[in-house]
Design brief:
Shape: elongated
Order of helices and strands: HHEEEHEEHEEHEHEHEHH
CATH superfamily of the largest domain: Periplasmic binding protein-like II
Protein name: ABC transporter substrate-binding protein
Largest sheet: 8 strands, mixed
Radius of gyration: 19 Å
Oligomer: single chain
Main location: other
Number of strands: 10
Organism: Arthrobacter horti
Distance between the termini: 15 Å
Number of helices: 9
Strand content: 15-25%
Keywords: Signal
InterPro entries: SBP_3_CS, Solute-binding_3/MltF_N
Strand order of the largest sheet: 4-1-5-10-6-9-7-8
Length: 323
């Protein structure tokens, strides 16, 4: 659930959901985590499971073009012949870099390619700093597909098409050596990716309660890359980490038992594909396209191929009502 503050002054009050440029690490070897960690980090990085990012990328050529939907593609997009997707590949298994350090993979990426195939358009995946995606929708990117959690503030700034649901989950080092409890995080060190709702909403609220109760504040360790957060936890330099539930699940898988979940998933919310506020026709078309992918089975195949099928929505909505 990425949620960094927008740099565009006109949209400053709109929360987002992710972080920085993907060129920092291979989250695909996911949680190889040996590259591009903070200079202050020490110890042995977690090892990836056999095959690293072995989950197969969905093949968009298996998606059949829908001529009726393709006919609704706006003229400017038809002339361009492609969808440009803004994304920040730092959030496995949603969007991250494969072992070559260049190819972006993940269920968000596969879904974006499936949307393009259904509309008969090529798809260009553009790596971006997460906070820059929404302000650049329209002029630079046609869509933003990067684990954006849908919330009321965001809906004030952009159109959002729901396609997935995720909650917040927590993880600790195997065996929970520090005795961490989600019910009492005061005085504990918690790692989080910069700008996620886990940092800006959940941990902030918890920390305010700690301070109000006269307890030690939470030591919030905010890092740009989720890989670095996971490295810190595996090395034992923080007590716990918080992230989207599929991100935690993938981190546990890739670190081969070095970590474990603690507490229950909470604050589940839909995630959405972002479209510029003025591009209502395109937003409506994207919602129809996601619905078509749900009906033909491609949508579920994408999610299942990454082991996140339990996050599937029964239906896609344009600008769903949310808290």
């Amino acid at each position: 659930m990425k949620n960094p503050a927008l740099k565009n002054p006109a949209l400053k009050k709109t929360a987002l959901t992710k972080t920085s440029l993907a060129s920092t690490v291979l989250l695909a070897a996911a949680l190889t985590l040996t590259a591009c960690t903070n200079a202050s980090e020490t110890g042995t990085a977690p090892k990836p499971s056999a095959g690293g990012s072995a989950a197969p990328s969905f093949d968009p050529t298996t998606v059949t073009k829908d001529d009726a939907l393709a006919a609704q593609v706006p003229d400017a997009l038809k002339a361009k012949g492609k969808l440009v997707i803004g994304t920040n590949p730092q959030y496995a298994p949603g969007e991250f870099l494969a072992e070559d350090g260049q190819t972006q993979i993940g269920y968000d990426t596969d879904l974006a390619r499936a949307i393009g195939a259904k509309l008969g358009l090529k798809v260009e995946i553009a790596t971006a700093d997460f906070p820059s995606i929404i302000p650049a929708l329209g002029p630079k990117y046609d869509l933003g597909v990067s684990s954006f959690t849908i919330n009321a503030k965001r809906l004030d700034a952009v159109n959002m098409v729901s396609y997935f649901t995720a909650g917040t989950s927590w993880a600790v080092k195997k065996g929970n050596p520090t005795g961490f409890s989600v019910d009492d995080v005061c005085g504990k060190s918690v790692g989080v990716q910069t700008g996620t709702v886990q940092e800006t909403d959940d941990l902030k609220a918890r920390n305010d309660k700690c301070v109000a109760a006269g307890k030690k504040p939470i030591d919030i360790v905010s890092l740009k890359a989720q890989t670095d957060v996971t490295t810190r936890l595996a090395n034992g330099s923080i007590d716990a980490m918080a992230a989207d539930s599929p991100v935690i699940g993938y981190a546990l898988q890739q670190t081969q038992g070095q970590l474990e979940k603690v507490g229950l998933v909470f604050d589940s919310a839909p995630q959405g594909i972002t479209v510029a506020k003025q591009d209502t026709a395109l937003a409506s078309l994207v919602q129809k396209t996601v619905t078509a992918l749900m009906k033909d089975g491609s949508y579920k195949k994408v999610l299942d191929s990454w082991g996140v099928g339990d996050g599937a929505l029964p239906a896609s909505e344009l600008n769903p009502v949310t808290k």
